[in-house]
Amino acid sequence: MEKVTLHDKTFRLLYSHDELCDAVKMCADKISADYKDKEPLFISVLNGSFMFTAELMKRIDVPKGEVCFIKVSSYQDMESTGTVSHLIGLNRTIVGRDIVIVEDMVDSGCSMYNLVNKFKEDGARSIRIATMFIKPNALKFPITVNYVGKELENDFVVGFGLDYNEYGRQLSDLYVLDEN
Ligand code: 5GP
Ligand code: MG
After folding, report:
1. Burial of residue 70 (number of CB atoms within 10 Å: 0-12, 13-18, 19+)
2. pLDDT tens-digit map of 56-86
3. Given 29, 107, 155, 178, which residue is catalytic?
4. Which of 4, 14, 105, 176 to mutate to test the pocket of ligand 1 (most atoms within 8 A of CB)?
5. For residue 124, which of 86, 98, 91, 102 has the smallest C-alpha distance?
6. Closest ligand 1 atom number to CA of residue 49
């Protein structure tokens, strides 16, 4: 499909599934080489990362790798003005583990900054970030992103796990907001 309409917006094709999977393969090869003799725990951040995680894991060759899924839910704290985030679904210890966070998109870097700090506090031995997409010009937080699928401009994209108000996650290609 060249164009797709979700809710009130139209999006145009940016990268095909094959192009995205070529980029995933390059990440997978690097991770396989780096973690060959380790026992990494891949922590996938739902919902957006489900498709990247599946495509990445299919291509990774790390015999002693484990995969788990978490969700970072944020809600408005009625007592204060700030937004409170908490992490659900991590049902095992990460003390002494080599963690690879599997993320859909790094934008400002806020989510990854907070997650990396939390895993450090919780006693992880090492923490790396693998993200399918990054918007380098939007990065505001001091994080190191170790594995990147595709670098994007500061435009809103959907598909390959990413949604527009919950629509579009299942699209296998990546689409960008069509301003015309
Ligand atoms: P950050 O904390 O780095 O500012 O934001 C990361 C999160 O913002 C991503 O995990 C994703 O949920 C959301 N996000 C950032 N840019 C986009 C985009 O272009 N499309 C969609 N669907 N979500 C985005
Ligand atoms: Mg995300």
Report:
1. middle
2. 999 999 999 999 999 987 655 544 444 557 8
3. 107
4. 105
5. 98
6. 10
Q: How far is the CA of 50 from the centre of ligand 2 (A)?
A: 10
For residue 141, pLDDT beyond 50: yes
Task: Extract the tokens encoding 28.
Answer: 């997978």
pLDDT band at 20 (very low <50, low <70, confident <90, very high): very high
Q: Is 107 a catalytic residue?
A: yes
pTM: 0.95
**pLDDT attached to residue 83:** 54
Please give the distance, rounded to the nearest whole angstrom, from the Cα atom of residue 127 to the centre of ligand 2: 17
Instruction: Quote the tokens at residue 43.
Output: 């922590």
Ligand 2 centroid from CA 45, angstroms = 6
* Distance set, CA 127 to CA 15, 43, 73, 98 (Å): 29, 10, 21, 6
Q: Is the dihedral of CA 169, 170, 174, 180 positive or negative?
A: negative
